[in-house]
Every structure is written in C-alpha cells, then in structure tokens.
Amino acid sequence: MMRTKKIIAALGCVLALTGATMVALAQETTPPAATPPAAAPADAKAAAAEHVAAIKANLMQSMQNLKGYQWTETQVVNLKGEDKSNKQFSCSYGADGKVVKTPLAAPAAEDKEKRGVRGKIVENKKEEMGEYMQSAVALVKSYIPPDPAKIQAAKDAGRVSLTVLEPGKRVKVDIKDYEKPGDTLGIELDTATNQILGLTVASYLADAKDAVTLDVKMASLTDGTGYPAKIVLDGKSQNIKVTVSNSDYKKMVN
C-alpha cells in the first residue's frame, strides 16, 4: 500500500512537471501579436479632410495677397516642336478681382502680302489655332487657381482621395470631376508648411478627344504667398504646348 502511494505521488510529480513544461513551451511558441492594420477608412477620411482644409486656407490667403502684387507673365506657344510665339505681359488684379494683362511689347506686324490659295490656308490655320488657344486659356482659368468652394463640394461628395508621397512631408490630394465629368485635379501639399507644391490636371476641351493636361509648379514669395511659377499646357490632339511663366513679383504702391 505504501509502495502504491509512492508510485502515485511520483506520477503526480511527473505530470505536474510535464504540464509546466507544456505551458512554458506554449508560451515560447505563441506567435507574436499581429501588426496593427493600416489606417482605417475613418482615419483616411479625417486625414483627407485635414489636408483639404489646409489647401483651402492656403489658396484663399494667397489669392488675397496676390491682389497687392504686380508681376510679369511670359507665354510661349510651341506647335509641333517649334516655338511660334513668345509674348510678355505686365499683370495685376483689377478692381473686379480679375487679372488685367498689359502687353509689354507691340505685336509684330503681320505679312499682308500673302494671296491666293496658300494665303487662305495659312489664315484658316491661324484662325483654328486662335480658337484652340482661346479654349485652352479658358480651360486654364477654370483650374488655376483652384476654387476652394469646388474643392469643398468635391470633398463633401466623396470625390477626394489621398496619396502619401513622402510620410510626414508630402501628400497628394486628387479631386475627381472637379470641373468636368471625368477630369482630375491633383494638388501636392507640403504637410510641414501646408504650402502647395504643385498641381496636375487631366482634362479636355470640347470632348474627350481634345485631351489636355496641365502641369503647374508652385513657388512662394517672401511673405509665404503661393503663386504658379510655371504652367505647362499640353494639347496632344493639336500638337500644341503652351508654357506660361510668372516672375518678377513686386508689391504695388497704393
């Protein structure tokens, strides 16, 4: 009887040790906790809303500040790889809030001697190009500068998406159907300073066949005012590229 009790006690010790060992092994082999998932949709929406608010504030302040400046605008029109015109304007905002452009040089005199069929063809091409340029200029004005109210409307309608380009430094806010169905306005933002770094536009003129892209490089004046330093319009259907550069900003004396 005594021997039986000793055997049972020994078995109990073995079982206890085995159980403890199994527990320890289980603890050692327990997989590490899963990494936290990516930002939830609610967090992404909150981030997008924050950046949209920063963009709107930057645009409104810069637009207000620019009304006190005068600057030089240079327009270069390139057709099929060849520069066709180069014009400069003195620009400032008028009392109605619109930009007033004054040519800095008189336009070159046109050759009036061309006659016949060839002359008519040249004139027709000039007219077509003139119409295209008018439409292109109107398109640029509809995107640059972006309208804070349209940006807010797009955000409220769920047409805004956010891409992190450089964590803690740069993001891009894409706005679908900003001006026309199917277009996209992209705004790159410096998240440290809330300065707009650049704009991209994928749009079209009369229809989707007349695709037009805009690439805008933004810069800042000494007071932090943002302005479009260089705008490149690419009209691939017509092989036309228009480059608009803004420079020599000076505060106007009241």
Description:
There is one protein chain. This protein is of the alpha+beta class. It has helices at residues 2-29, 41-66, 116-143, 148-156, and strands spanning 69-79, 82-93, 99-103, 160-166, 170-176, 184-190, 195-204, 211-220, 226-235, 240-251. It has a ten-stranded antiparallel beta sheet. The longest helix is centred in the N-terminal third of the chain and has 28 residues, at 2-29. The radius of gyration is 32 Å and the shape is globular. Mean pLDDT is 82; it is low at 1-31 and 35-40.
Task: Give the helices and strands, then pairings.
Elements: H1 2-29, H2 41-66, E1 69-79, E2 82-93, E3 99-103, H3 116-143, H4 148-156, E4 160-166, E5 170-176, E6 184-190, E7 195-204, E8 211-220, E9 226-235, E10 240-251
Antiparallel strand pairs: 1-2, 1-10, 2-3, 4-5, 5-6, 6-7, 7-8, 8-9, 9-10
Helix pairs in contact: 2-4
